[in-house]
Structures are given as C-alpha cells and as structure tokens.
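forwarding from the other thread:

> can someone predict this with pyridoxal-5'-phosphate?

sure thing
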Amino acid sequence: MNALPNKLRLAERMSRLGTEGAFDTLVRARQLEAQGREIVHLEIGEPDFPTAGHIVEAAAAALREGWTHYSPPGGLPELQKAVAEDAGRRRGIAVDPSEVVITPGAKPILFYVILALVEPGDEVLCPDPGFPIYESMVRFVEARPVPYGLPEERDFEIDVGEMLAKITDRTRLIILNSPHNPTGGAIGRAQLERLAGGLAGRDIFVLSDEIYHRLIYDGEHASLAQLPGWKERTIILDGFSKAYAMTGWRLGYGVMRADLAEQVGRLIVNSHSCTASFTQMAGVAALRGDQSAVSSMLAEFRRRRAVMVEGLNRIPGFRCRWPRGAFYAFPNITGTGLSSRALADALLHEAGVACLPGTAFGRGGEGYLRFSYANSVENIEEALRRTARWIEARLSP
Ligand SMILES: Cc1ncc(COP(=O)(O)O)c(C=O)c1O
C-alpha cells in the first residue's frame, strides 16, 4: 500500500501567483443562476458581439485548406507581416515582421516578457488599480511590484511626477496600460513625453499594454513607442480579443525589438509551441479585411457608455467620470459608506447585479466598482435600476 500523504505538495512559487477577480465573480454569479436567480452580468471584460462573418469564414477556409499544422513559434510569417503593417501604420512607426511575436491571446506576452526581462529582487512599476495579472506575474518571478496610482481627478490619467518619484536603481520595467482597465483612463502624448524625458539614460523597459487602443472615444491613442528612441525600449502588447470581439479565439501579439522577440520565441518553444495556424489566418483576415465591424462596435459602446455613466451618476453615493477608452465605468462609491467588496457582494447577492469591486484590481481600487458596459442597453438599464433600488433602500433612514 502507498503510505505517502495524499495532500498536494505544491512548489512554493505557486503561492505567489494571483488570479483574476472577474473570473471568480463570474463563477459565483453562475452558481447563483444555477439556484434559479437572475443575474445581470457586468463583471466580465469581453465584447458581447459576434466575431465578424468574414473573419469566421477565413478561419473555416483555413481549416479546409489544411492550416492545421504547427506554425513557427513566433507566428506565421503571413500574420507577422500583417501585424507589422497594421501596428506600425496605426502608430506611425516602422515595424519589421521580425519584431512581432504571435501568441494565443495577448496575456502570454505579459507572462513571457516578464520571465525574459525581470530578475528576482527587481522592481516593476504597476498601475494600481490595474489588470491583476501584472502584479501576479511580477511576484511569480520574485520581483517586487511597485504600485503607482491613476488619480480620479485627472480622469485616471497617470501622474508622471508620482511615477518618476518611484523609480530606483532596481527598477527594471514599467507597465503602462492605455486605455486602462479598470478605469477607462488614457495617457495623452504630453504625459508620455514627460515620462520619456524623466527616464532618459536609464536602462528601463516599458511594457505598454495597448489591448484597448481601438476602443477610444475622445482624442487619439498615443503610444510611448512613437517617441524618438523609445520603440527599442517599448514592448507593445496588443491583440484581437477586444478590437475584433475574438476573446475565445485566443489570438494576440507583442511588438518588441527583434533580439527580445527571439528570446520570447524560446519561451514559446518551451511552453505552448505555437499559436493555432487557422486562427492566425483568421487574424490576417481581421487586419486586412473590412474594419466596419470595429467602428460599429465602438459606436455602440459609445452609446452604452452614456447610458452607464449618466445612470451611475444618478445613484446616490455614486460619482462616475467619463471613461476615455475601453468598455468599463469605474464609479467612486465612497458616498455610500460601504467598502468596494461589501457593496459588490451585496449587489450580486441581493440585487442580482454582477460587477467587480475596485479592489479586484489592487488596493488602489478601494472606494470604486467596475461595471463593464459590454452588455446590451436593456441589461445596463436593468442593472442600473436594480443598483439604484438597492442603494435607495439601504441608504434611506
Ligand atoms: C488590460 C488587459 N490586458 C490584457 C488582457 C488580455 O487579453 P487577451 O484576452 O487577449 O489575453 C486583458 C483582458 O482582459 C486586459 O484587460
């Protein structure tokens, strides 16, 4: 008989990995639904639109044509070329296909770049609130996440002065995310220029998460990679999930200097080998084909943003800025007297509205909730009605 204990003994590093609150809340909401409750889902960050027909057709054709084999680890040359042209043209920079790495979703770019560049004990500046995977990955490699804020009074644009004050000799990487999840804030060119000036002469890389850059409502998207000398120090993370409503396809990419791209390719060979070939062919069709689905999605998000922000601002104790990009509203809820977690839990269990506490994105998210408006206007209005009703009952004497 085997006398070994049955308890799973995990490697210590697993204790440093975090998770994503949106998935946890989705699981809890689904459990409530299984018990017969009716929940409005405003927790998950994915467009509710179908992928455009011509992209689906391209994938089906690719399957029929035999794009069913391994691709090179860094991606099919066809897609690397299409990404280089598209990513370069949209930002006004020259990108060579050798600087493009294709991955199953954009998330692995984070994983691999941090593994490739960050040593134990290094410091990495991460937005707080911010996408939770940044901090999780930084801790995983035994580095130290150094949080920087996104002040509400600046419409959640970074405060470069604060950021520069946090740079030390151990700073190895800065993570920027614009448009930003969860606040909807965006970084303008002036702040990027200030940042570049402050970082001059330092051996620091910037990972610029631009996954929402096609979803911007006011002004133009700005990328650090556009500033002279910064393309070589910037890793652009981008992909198809949000812009083309392709979250489940798992297709993303990074744009980075060719020598780093080669090293990321080595990590890919050691892990997922390559991204599905027929999916990559669909990616070529997405980038080269008709872009009208992207513009109509943006127009619809703009309409929903207005319903969401105006509705939230009518709820007692809530105060909501206008997000400049992405599809999240991030109201300040301190006026309700409740913590983010307590309010998010109560809305889920008592009002049937699934949203996320700001703290799912770090300590800096206390006092806020994140509502995704990637849902129909009817559902958004229903969620707002339920939230307002719950708050009014709770706050009335
Ligand atoms: C800020 C941010 N970066 C990256 C990703 C990952 O995108 P993908 O689904 O392509 O892996 C997300 C997805 O929610 C995100 O919000």
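Residues 45, 105-107, 131, 177, 181, 209, 211, 239, 241, 247, 252 surround pyridoxal-5'-phosphate (CB under 6 Å). thats all i got for now
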